[in-house]
Amino acid sequence: MKIKFTLLLFLSVCINAVVFAATADTAAFKTANLFQSNMVMQQNKPFTIWGKASPGDKITIKGDWTGKQTTIEADTAGHWRGAIKVPKAKPGDFTPHTLVITDGAKTITLNNLLIGEVWIASGQSNMQYSLKGEEGKNNGVIDWQHEVPKANFPNIRLFYTDLNFKAQPFDEVKGKWQICTPETAGRFSAVAYYFASEIHKNTKLPVGVVLSTIGASTAQAWTNRKIMEADTVLYNKYLREYDNSPKSKEVIDGGFTFEKVTRPTLLYNAMIHPLAGLSIKGFIWYQGEFNRNDKNKYTRLLTAMIKGWRSDFGQGDLPFYLVQVPSFYWNNEDPKAFDYAIFREAQANVRKLKNTEMVVTTDDPDAPRNLHPRRKKPIGLRLARIALNKDYGFGNVQYLGPQLNKIRVDGNQIIVSYKSKTLDGGLATADKKAPAEFFIAGEDAVFYPATAVIKGDEVVLSSAKVTKPVAARYAFTNTAVTNFMNKAGLPAEPFRTDGWADDGSGAKIKVDYKRLNEEL
């Protein structure tokens, strides 16, 4: 009897061990949280998907749009990654698809998938700024009460990445793919929503947006440590002091603090690295306020960040479209101050990198007194104009406001000419008044407001205080609000033709900006 009981106990333990092992193996199999029902898959590219399983397990991926399937094996750490071809999307085809992933014992089915375009939207608070406001408060977009009910696009899908911080690159993000409705869009980025809806309306393709953003963040927080370590200038500027401080030794948790979103690499590790490899069309970016004192270093930093992201995603020179920060006082009431204009110039210089472009925002009348201006619709639509022209074949969609071509001095006047491709029907002003925010200076480097007259495709500048002008500036102050544009309604880009800068003491110095830009 005792022997029989012992044998039964042994068999029970063995069976339970087998059941437990099978359960553990099955539980180990999963996809990364990024892959869910209701998402959009990037058209005309292999759709890469990954997750975890027991080491050595065979994982099969099959989509209902193809008779073929992909089989991969989980590595020794239990990680697996595979790709399945996704066809080119057909405008107007919103057929829901199904993707089945199985390890043989457990099957994961993703339903209501669309084949279309996927963009990642990132940056700080002005990208995070939501479509919907609160009654009685000065937030949400202009006229949000009427805009939110119109946000009913079942073929636009939205993923809002949960905030997180990590000291080392991480593999997982939290968030949920949702269908674009007034409720879901109301909580989403207004800029990203307007961008997606304009792409969708014009291309008749499904659009998915992955939003990874947090207010008050710096660009170095979104940049891979290895990228900054490989560049002595970036390391000395953004990493050295941090690495030598007690903060770098702290245990990092996911809780929000304004200080933590400025630390280098933490947001990249937790909110970009886990997305890397997702098949996408490109990036849109609205950030800079908290790097405003970096001047030309920002050009170098953002260029490095973009290169790092492109390398991580492994899909070539993915489009990267940024928003130039609008005007703001920054507690400096001096109307001639231009340190923030120098930062905007640093943003503009990022376009030297292939497949990048920038939206100009100096025409927002509310911006100088509001760090979070509510006119987000024009920004989203301008970003969409860039993408429609450069990525979707809409060559008739103008995306550039007037850009400086050259100046010439004619007696006591400066004549400003603009690049022909940025004119789009000619020069104009939004209020039918003379162009504002032009300045000219003589050899003394003192700038005075200029009378500006549009003559054909040029602007003639003059000032009674400058008899022998040598340099011109346009909208090159911290608080400039512009009315000058082309007939497509796109604002002219700020510029300066001089190499002068203020060293803080009031003395004027010469700076070789050409050499500095070449160094970048």
TrEMBL record:
A GO molecular-function annotation: sialate O-acetylesterase activity
Alphabetized SUPFAM superfamilies for the sequence: SGNH hydrolase
Record's keyword annotation contains NAD: no
Top-level taxon in the UniProt lineage: Bacteria
Domain Sialate O-acetylesterase per the UniProt entry, residue ranges: 117-384
Pfam assignment, any one: SASA
Keywords: Hydrolase, Signal
One annotated GO biological process: carbohydrate metabolic process
Signal peptide: 1-21
Name of this chain's protein: Sialate O-acetylesterase
Lineage: Bacteria, Pseudomonadati, Bacteroidota, Sphingobacteriia, Sphingobacteriales
